[in-house]
Amino acid sequence: MLCETLGESRGETAARSISAWERLVRRPTPGNESRQSSIALGGGSINIAWQAVDRHAETSHRTHIALRWLGRSGMARLISYSGLRDLTNQFANVLVGLDIGKGDRVAVLTGRIPELYVAALGTMKNRSVFCPLFSNFGPEPIRTRLELGDARVLVTTDRLYLRKIAPLRALLPRLEYVLIVGEDGPAAEIPGTLDLAHLMAAASDRFTIPPTDPEDMAVLHFTSGTTGRPKGAIHVHGAVAAHHASARHALDLTPGDVFWCTADPGWVTGTSYGIIGPLTIGATLVVDQEEFDAERWLHILEEEQVTVWYTAPTAIRMLMRMDPARFRSLDTTALRYIASVGEPLEPAAVHWGEAAFGQPIHDTWWQTETGAIMIANGPGAVVKPGSFGRPLPGVEAAIVHRCRDGGVALETTPDTPGELALRAGWPSMFRGYLAEPGRYNACFRDGWYLTGDLARRDADGDYWFIGRADDVIKSAGHLISPGEVEAVLREHPAVADAAVVGLPDPLLLQMVKAFIVLKEDRSESESVRRDILGHARRRLGAAVAPREITFKADLPKTRSGKLMRRLLKARELGIPEGDRSSLIDDGA
Ligand code: 6R9
């Protein structure tokens, strides 16, 4: 592994760990003591990685722990701010050595290991573009994103490479370098790849961040529309102003906090708040490699003395199933702020937070496109259970209706449903969908960004979520494109046509369900069903693949051949089919 291992057992004092880490990470090169990574700042230059890491590494905060990593095996690793500066400098130099420069995309598919954090920030130092991929994706979503994102470099692990990338490599001619991290010790030797640990060891830990324009692309996040083609949301270095301000004002973070954002950096929450925002504050990030496990999570909250916890309703719902007595025996006195994102936070969850942790859970609302939290029940807010709160300072929100003339009408009557819109221009606003200006422009009308969410605002100015205005599915906090799933289903030799919708699910919010029309020469059977489900899981990964299939003789479509997923869903749920003209064609 590329980050030196301390082998800390949990509970050893942070101070001891810091000095041990410092000894390990500081390479015995002359002049180490005075080493500073300098940035040729000037003319309004701003670089996310400098704001997140080097700024602190040049002060007495340098010995503060930036990253507290909890490995699957029970190992822990601590990386100080100066350690993180040196490692990210090395990674930036690795990129330079490969002739990877400004604007080049560096994709990372690893799971939550220290190398992911080093690669993300080192990439941004080099003004290359960090493109995170979710390691639980199947080969198909990975291939599409690497291809659309035009990735020149991929950082991945030996195991993930062999399972998911090697079979696709020939289809990705523009992917020049694959940098391998060993999942269980030194990386396996794999033809056509490079060993990241070797490259890092040979790279200098000094790096001068070149002048970075606030409008330079920093992060490329793929998100889902309704069609099969994911959208590459472009984020710029100047977004860090919003990451920082919202980390402070919506998550209440201060430099002394031990902050646990449970999201994977493959999703926007795990980048904006699993990496950038809290580091700009100077807080300590807790990163757990493992997937959700109720007992493990409670143990982490207690053992790591987490002070601020940012999680999602699906996880909260799973914890709500536990015996309340378990929480009475838990020592979470350090925990002073809990926030949630990604799905509606039901009132019962807010009340449960009060019972289990003696405090409400604060809802926060935002999207991949907004780059940072826009609306929240911030610190000090009187939490109205079920409401996601008010716009942060500098954010202007409204409830609007789309007019036929291409403009919008503002809704002024309280509690009237409409589409949630944001006045365009906040610092972390996405600057485009990669290579799709039409799709980007379709998001804006009369200077408002239209979110695709339906909501209402009450007379106090608090916002309440109603649902999505389009067909995009939210399952366990993850946006899923019905079109992307349908395309994979249609590849199956027995499938003539497919439609995918999200049906209500008590745990996941929505469950991915597919309606399949079989080819004429095929007939329904349990083995065909299983075969199609298995195909989808292999190609898409379990987080995205449908959980259920119903066979249909045909699918409802408009005269122009557009799938009417809403209608299918309404029929399935036995609810009124509603006004079909209200379906928004979001250009997605
Ligand atoms: C950060 C993130 C965005 C969509 C968004 C909305 C839903 C997010 C929510 C919420 C209800 C909240 N969403 N926060 N719904 N209450 N507090 O989740 O980004 O993956 O792009 O999803 O998630 O529908 O439009 P992303």
Task: Please give a structural write-up.
The chain has 588 residues and is α/β, with parallel strands linked by helices. It has three domains: 45-377 and 390-395, ANL, N-terminal domain (Rossmann fold), CATH 3.40.50; 396-468, Luciferase, domain 3 (Roll); 470-585, ANL, C-terminal domain (GMP Synthetase, Chain A, domain 3), CATH 3.30.300.30. It has a 15-stranded mixed β-sheet that branches. Strands 4-3-5-6-7 form a five-stranded parallel β-sheet, with helices on both faces. The longest helix has 17 residues, at 81-97. Mean pLDDT is 90; it is low at 1-41 and 581-588. Bound molecules: ligand 6R9. The site of ligand 6R9 has 22 residues, from helix 9, strand 14, strand 21 and strand 22.
Primary descriptors:
alpha/beta; 588 residues; binds ligand 6R9; Luciferase, domain 3; disordered N terminus; 29% helix; 27 strands; Rossmann fold; 3 domains; 15-stranded mixed β-sheet; GMP Synthetase, Chain A, domain 3; disordered C terminus; globular; five-stranded parallel β-sheet
